[in-house]
Amino acid sequence: VQLVESGGGLVQPGGSLRLSCAASGFTFSSYAMKWYRQAPGKERALVATITSGGVPTYYADSVRGRFTISRDNAKNTVYLQMNNLKLEDTAVYYCHAYGPLWGQGTQVTVSS
Fold this sequence. Notes:
The structure is a single chain. By secondary structure, the protein is mainly β. The protein has no helices and 10 strands. A 6-stranded mixed β-sheet has the order 2-10-9-4-5-6, with no helix packed on it.
């Protein structure tokens, strides 16, 4: 049972990245999925959520209109499309399924 994030990296302000989170070992299509992020010195914060059927249900105010969460249940993968990135989006991004099941995180650094 695991979640593996990918797609992070270094990007300039205004740029875009797409994060992926590949799930295995459980019935992915039965679970809502969430993306969190943790910036240096701050607590982990919820960024976006999506239902098991693929309906986004929450975006943090700071990312609404710039980030889009989606999923492909056939590929057991959840995505986070991040556009118009800002310096304050710099963080480690984690996907989460349920209970203790977290990915290892992927670093996103926005810097000029």
